[in-house]
Amino acid sequence: MNILITGNAGYLGPVLIRHLRRSLPQHRYIGFDSGYFAHVLTGASRLPETRCDVQHWGDLRDFPYDLLNGIDVVVHLAAISNDPMGQRFAAVTETINDTASRALAVEARRRGVRAFILASSCSIYGQAAGAPRSESSPLNPLTAYARSKVRMEEALQCLADDQFVVTSLRFATACGMSDRLRLDLVLNDFVACAMSSGEITILSDGTPWRPLIDVNDMSLAIEWAIRRQPGVAGPFLAVNVGKTNHQVIDLAKAVAAAIPATRISVNAAAAPDKRSYQVDFSLFQSMAPDHQPQVSLRQSIEQLRSGMQRIKFADSEFRSSDYMRLKVLERHVQTHQLTDDLRWTGVQ
Q: Which of 71, 191, 273, 324 lies 20 to 30 A from 317 at CA?
């Protein structure tokens, strides 16, 4: 089987390809990525993309569709992938996450790809007080990123049939160690704060709810989606994937408990964070009993701590560093290596 992974040179990609090489070693893996963050490596012993059989570099907006010939499964990770980037680059987010992604899916179906897996997000539930959100709950996307995921799901549902099986994995907030670590994620941010300054600074009042999933467990869910047949839940499936829901303050306390002498600072005067929601993961639990999340909150924290120790992480100003995806893009634009619409230039 030939499996194309778009956006594989990001945060999740290195963890995913390592997992798939272990769990599905008989398949052939092809990567495709823009390379925006390829230089941001954290303790990798080799370039992660060398674990692919073939690696292509390019812009999703100019995807060379002949690469789809002979592909059996597309795992679509490529996206402008968080709210701050979506706000700063709203038009690009719509073009890449929706327009170009939809065109990729249409062409994949036309060329005989049998399955398309979308890395979607629980952020599509937006502000959602009360009971945890299930797959049938109303969607309330508050950001350009979340809206793009909703539109992509709608388009994929129209394309799905028995010959083109679509699985949209609505992932909880990612966390955990990677060869391309991101620190613009809540748990990762808190561990970085504790490791670099001994103080966790919460930018909200600490009350918002967040569902969490470790990148290793995201990889496990993608493996399940690769294996899924249309007889399991039909040609189109959108499913919440995660393990637990936590209030932000409780995440900070868990990090402080794991890293001694860590203080917690809460911004009680912060404006309310509307991105607060709990998520019901029972559908995925019933459908994929052998691919349930296995990494506990404590284990994610410990793996982050040990990984940061290996790279001697001590940057108390990390929120301005390349560990923040928006900062990387802004620096590329400021140095004229990317245009304002995030296309590579010839500048050295």
A: 273
Q: Is residue 343 part of a domain?
A: no
State the pTM of this model. Answer: 0.95
Average pLDDT in the chain: 94
Examine residue 339 and state whether it is found in any structural domain, yes or no.
no
Tally the domains of the chain.
1
267 part of a folded domain: yes
Token pair for 156: 């994929």
Work out whether the CA dihedral 296, 300, 306, 310 comes out positive or negative: positive
Domain interval for residue 180? 2-334
Those residues with Cβ within 8 angstroms of residue 310's Cβ, 6 or more apart along the chain or in another chain: 43
User: Are 21 and 50 in contact, with CB atoms under 8 Å apart?
Assistant: no
E strands along 34-122, which residues? 54-57, 73-76, 115-121
List alpha helices for the chain, DSSP H. Answer: 13-23, 83-88, 90-94, 101-110, 144-159, 186-197, 215-227, 248-258, 282-287, 297-310, 325-334
User: Which DSSP symbol is given to 43?
Assistant: S
In this structure, of 50-59, 69-78, 177-186, 204-213, the range with the lowest mean pLDDT score is: 204-213
